[in-house]
Amino acid sequence: MQFTAPEDRLRTLVFTSSVPREGKSFCAINHSVALAQQGYRTLLIDADLRLPSVGKAFLGGELVAGLSDVLRNHCAVETAISLTSVENLSILSRGNPRARLLLAYDAGVLRTGGTNPARASGIPLVTWYAHPSLTLPIRLAHVFSNRVVTSLPSAYPYRTDKLSVIGQGIDTALFAPSSHREVDEDMILCVGRISRVKDHPTLLRAVALLRRDVRLVILGATAGAKDEAYARELQRLVAELRLEEAVTFAPSVSSTELPARYRECAVHVNLTPARFGDKVAWEAMSCARPCLVANEDFRETLGKHSAALSFRTGDAADLAQKLTALLEQTEQHRAAVGADLRANVERLHSLPRLADRILAELSPAPPVRAVHEHPLSGEVACAR
Q1: Which of 19, 66, 269, 355 is the most buried if burial means most Cβ atoms within 10 Å?
Q2: Would you state the pLDDT for residue 375?
Q3: Quick one: 344 exposed, middle or buried, by C-beta within 10 A (0-12, 13-18, 19+)?
Q4: Of the candidates 344, 333, 277, the residue with the CA atom closest to the CA atom of residue 306
Q5: How far is CA 58 from CA 29, 30, 61, 65, 196, in A?
């Protein structure tokens, strides 16, 4: 990294990542030690207020003043910096363990009648959230924000006074159909984390009801002990239904490899219920593959195919009936359905459209909106 910048110009490095547990702390700590050992005076700052690790690594978890205390003006930076056993290396740890809530309090979020400093400065804040869990941080974010945006009508679990439904952001250039990919006309694909909310048992029971040979591929990974226990339950159910030769549990793949998996299936199935905006359904549709869904909020994207591609949550017989109808069609018919779905994804959920919608929400003087249920489609409409 020193070679990437002119001499003596590289003074600050930020270690970050898109998901947890990718090794940010490990890399930052080791890089800081290496710089210090080369004679550079080095300050390592732990800005992860949720899961700090720098203080634990160098101070054994001892609670000392740190970044959160500096941000709250409880101490000067100089007094919050701690020396380490490594020569030339100092650290600024997280500080107060209640940092997130205390900083929110100081920002005026928890005070009755408190003002939002960003809003007072004319900086618009927009929160994106699409999950049924309603937590304290979400409530606080709602108070903080000028606008709240989500992907589907029921995907935001809190008040609708600031809400706009702006769709998902699907990379339709990456998730695109290919004329060179041969479709397996007996393959049913289900992509997503191996989690109880995905309702895989309904899919397994539906496959057991089919009166034809199929190949079911469940592609995804577990994330924790609860998911591991659930995966073992699925394996037992497969054995109970005598589906060992029909069902394959495949490991997750990278986003660049995933489009090829979508393209080769005859039909994709997404069993996530309402109130979840599961983007894998849109990804499959963007690859021009038929996608059966349990979430009624997908009706707008399904368009004229809504009745044929929707099934009742937890109803294996209904899902089996819809699967049979699709698998008995020709591949030309399924391709035509997939082409319609892709056109709807491009129109409603493409990345350029999402960017435009977010920029509109960030406009200095957003219009007053009333969020209500559309009488026909059930989507949340924004009246300007």
Answers
A1: 269
A2: 36
A3: buried
A4: 344
A5: 9, 12, 8, 14, 39
Closest to 222 (Cα-Cα) out of 262, 195, 198, 245: 195
Mean pLDDT calculated for residue range 311-340: 95
**190 and 280 co-located in one domain:** yes
Residue 9 structure tokens: 């110009």
CATH number at residue 6: 3.40.50.300
CATH code: domain of residue 261: 3.40.50.2000
Is 217 exposed, middle or buried (CB count within 10 Å of its CB: 0-12, 13-18, 19+)?
middle
Percentage of the chain modeled with pLDDT above 70: 85
Q: CB neighbours (10 Å) of residue 262? A: 26
Residue with more model confidence, 171 or 106 = 171
Q: How confident is the model at residue 18 (pLDDT cuts 50, 70, 90)?
A: confident
Query: In whole numbers, what is the pLDDT of the chain averaged over residues?
Result: 84
CA atoms within 13 A on the CB side of 14: 4
**Within 287-330, where are the H helices?**
299-302, 306-309, 316-327
Containing structural domain, residue 11: 2-100
| Residues 226/194, Cβ–Cβ less than 8 Å | no
